[in-house]
Design brief:
The structure holds 2 protein chains of 2 kinds.
Chain A (H helix, E strand, L loop, with lengths): L31 E5 L7 E7 L2 E12 L12 E8 L14 H14 L11 E11 L4 H15 L9 E8 L2 E4 L3 H6 L2 E8 L4 E11 L1 H46 L1
Parallel strand pairs in A: 4-5
Antiparallel strand pairs in A: 1-2, 2-3, 3-5, 6-7, 6-8, 8-9
Chain B lengths: L1 E2 L5 H15 L15 E5 L7 E7 L2 E12 L10 E8 L14 H16 L9 E3 L3 E13 L4 H15 L1 E8 L2 E10 L7 E8 L2 E4 L3 H6 L2 E7 L5 E7 L6 H27 L1
Parallel strand pairs in B: 5-7
Antiparallel strand pairs in B: 2-3, 3-4, 4-7, 6-7, 8-9, 10-11, 10-12, 12-13
Helix pairs in contact in B: 2-3, 3-5
The chains are: A alpha+beta, B alpha+beta.
Chain lengths: ~260, ~270
């Protein structure tokens, strides 16, 4: 009876014309939507869609450290939780934090630490929550993109925004911004976070198999994409303040008329 | 939640000394920036494990035991055996370690070691099947950190590879729907030998194999695991800062070069 188990056959990820299953070219990002200030209670928040990824990020702080003993005398403690909703993946995921989520919480925090001016807020915590509502490959990168927006939205002093994007190898070719199935059936995944003006790579992980040449080329592709995303992040931030400006101006006009 | 780690206060006082020395091209233990501490590998130290290796990397000590047992495959991979890597930072190894479930440092350590073995396809998982979809061999790689003086990732990865090479397994047979293990001394089917190399950045200098003191002053570290063909199979950046592209390229080059030396050492010691 066990012979009848279906063979797992990888789907065709790149067609003969070099297009991917979702119609993208190899060096093309998925559509990205960034929105800032989406939550009422959080000090800062952001929403990210990248492909089918739907991720909400919130920042609380700087606030009093709790429990007190975690506080540091010379800087703020940054805390981060990356968490996936049980319904965010094909098969229900237990809401308890998995080992993967614990590792990602750590690497996301470490990707953002370099830009936050934490020494301005000694003895406090800055808490960062990344909730993946739907996951579609590259959720840690989209999470970093959103989390750095939420930090900026909270008004926390930062040197600049951090953008992140993954590159992978699919059917022997380097491909930007892997989707779920490309990540699953592909040969390598290389998530990268980049701080463009400081020229600093703050997240770098890899699994799969890449030659040194492929790594260098893939890293270049990822950095280029991070620069594009960095531009989108700035626009998203500006958009919020333009909208606020419009509201204020409207109110002022109506007061003058009255 | 993952939080900014707290450094012991002594380390803060020593920070300046170490950073100044490194800036002058020196290290506290008289090594060059690109050399490893002495590596001592002892194999077969735990008789009750299928494979075991103890690695001393300078004053860091890591013991890895491999146990091979019968279990069920994952439903989505009915024709593959199972690999499980776990790491324990036992409290006897460092004043910073406390009893309890693995924290993020232990989880990261286990997952980076796991990624190296898994992604290089070091173990031929297909040959671990006893009965397709029903019974497979499960390879448990348990990393036990005994003394923490820095660069646990490389020490653990070396010990894990050594213990897999060193492992001797009986023969698994199905008799009347029961799996029986016939005693034997078969080696695990290995296709690849992944070796990790960790490089830390202190000031502007890249240091191979950081000691604990160096880890406490580093701005960032990068672990690059390469396979026997020199291809990269796993990477992990850690620490509170990052690397420039030029630094990354240099580290990858260093990792490929250093892994060759270390791989030869591990294989020579573990097979014996």
């Amino acid at each position: 009876m066990w012979e009848k188990l279906p063979e797992t056959k990888p789907p065709e990820l790149i067609d003969s014309k070099g297009f991917r299953a979702d119609g993208r070219r190899l060096d093309q990002l998925r559509p990205i939507k960034l929105e800032v200030g989406i939550l009422d209670k959080a000090d800062g928040s952001a929403y990210v869609e990248q492909g089918k990824n739907k991720i909400m990020c919130a920042v609380y702080g700087p606030r009093e450290a709790h429990p007190k003993h975690i506080a540091l005398p010379d800087r703020a403690v940054i805390r981060c939780r990356y968490h996936m909703a049980p319904f965010s993946v094909d098969e229900r995921k237990s809401p308890a934090p998995s080992r993967r989520e614990m590792e990602l919480s750590k690497v996301i925090r470490e990707s953002l630490e370099p830009v936050v001016l934490a020494d301005l807020y000694p003895r406090t915590t800055i808490d960062l929550f990344v909730e993946v509502l739907q996951s579609d490959g590259g959720s840690r990168c989209a999470g970093i993109t959103g989390a750095s927006l939420a930090l900026a939205d909270a008004g926390i002093p930062m040197t600049e925004l951090v953008a992140a994007c993954a590159v992978g190898k699919v059917q022997g070719q380097l491909a930007l911004d892997l989707s779920d199935s490309e990540d699953k059936y592909g040969e390598a995944d290389l998530p990268v976070a980049f701080v463009p003006n400081a020229n600093l790579v703050t997240l770098l992980q890899m699994d799969g198999s890449l030659t040194t040449e492929e790594f260098e080329k893939g890293l270049g592709m990822a950095l280029e994409a991070c620069r594009t995303i960095h531009g989108l992040q700035r626009e998203a931030l500006k958009k919020k303040y333009h909208e606020m400006k419009d509201v204020v101006e409207e109110k002022e006009e109506s007061e003058v008329v009255a | 939640m993952s939080a900014t780690p707290q450094l012991p206060p002594v380390a803060k006082l020593e920070q300046k000394t170490i950073v100044d020395m490194v800036a002058r091209g020196k290290r506290m233990d008289d090594r060059g920036p690109e050399s490893y501490r002495p590596i001592v590998i002892q194999s077969g130290v735990i008789e009750k494990a299928n494979g075991s290796v103890h690695v001393s990397l300078g004053k860091s000590k890591v013991l890895v035991g491999v146990k091979v047992e019968v279990g069920e495959p994952f439903p989505d991979t009915p024709d593959e055996g199972v690999l499980t890597v776990n790491a324990e930072l036992v409290p006897l190894a460092s004043p910073m370690f406390e009893p309890g479930p693995p924290g993020e440092q232990a989880i990261e350590l286990a997952r980076v070691v796991d990624r190296g073995i898994r992604e290089s396809k070091a173990i031929d998982v297909k040959s671990l099947v006893i009965q397709r979809g029903k019974k497979v061999q499960v390879v448990y790689v348990d990393v036990y950190v005994l003394d923490h003086d820095g660069n646990l990732i490389d020490a653990a990865a070396m010990a894990a590879l050594g213990a897999l090479v060193n492992a001797k397994v009986g023969k698994f047979e199905v008799k009347a729907d029961e799996v029986v293990v016939k005693p034997g001394r078969h080696a695990l089917p290995l296709n690849n030998y992944p070796v990790s190399v960790t490089v830390a950045k202190v000031g502007k200098t890249l240091l191979v194999d950081p000691s604990l003191e160096e880890e406490q002053v580093m701005s960032a570290r990068l672990t690059v695991t390469t396979d026997k063909n020199g291809a990269i199979c796993a990477m992990q950046k850690g620490g509170l800062s990052g690397f420039t592209v030029e630094e990354l390229k240099r580290i990858v080059g260093l990792a490929v070069e250093k892994a060759v030396e270390n791989r030869a050492k591990i294989l020579a010691a573990a097979k014996g």
